[in-house]
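ESCALATION

Customer reports they have been waiting on this structure for their group meeting. Please prioritize. Original submission:
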Amino acid sequence: AAQLQRRGVACAVPGHGVVGKSYDVVVIGAGVVGNACALELRRRGFTTLNVDANPSPGYGSTSSSSSCVRFSYSLADSSRLAWESYHGWLSWADYVEAPPGSDLCSLHEVGTVLLSPESDTQWSILQDRIAAVDNIVGIPAERLDAADLRRRMPYMNLNSYRPVRRITDDRFGEANGHEISGGIWYPNGGYVDDP
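Update from on-call: job pushed to the front of the queue and completed.
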């Protein structure tokens, strides 16, 4: 957010109102999405003001994000957007026009896996659809069975804990006697850190 503010994106937060000025566009929100929208508008010649109820940019839902970069969606448009965003993270410093050596967030490609519960016909159909979308979009992905998961991720507990239970349920956290049957591995998945 500080990088975006230095690029001329104004931001109003509680106690720091902007009085007597006019803007072409007022953007509601000063997290990663609101600030990115304002930056793109500024690059197109619009004056912008981000308004946020929180004390500083990035303190809303952005601060609660898992920062996970994943591609497993059942709709091609969602997967295309995720794949495009991945490439945006790869060139983040260029996007925000940061000087060399700037302390910026960065993508850590540690891989992600979409796990499959024990034999479940509906889940199998969904995973087939996701795999087909991966193929259409061109997202590198690999189907893994339980043996593959054990070999590649020996630290992973493959016990199944379905069905979903409330934390107040006495059986919350109990394995159901079945195992995860496999998953889809995404080598380019990972997370974005916060410097």
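Sent to customer with the following note: The beta strands are 10-12, 25-28, 48-51, 68-69, 107-108, 112-116, 142-145, 182-186, 190-192.
Escalation resolved.
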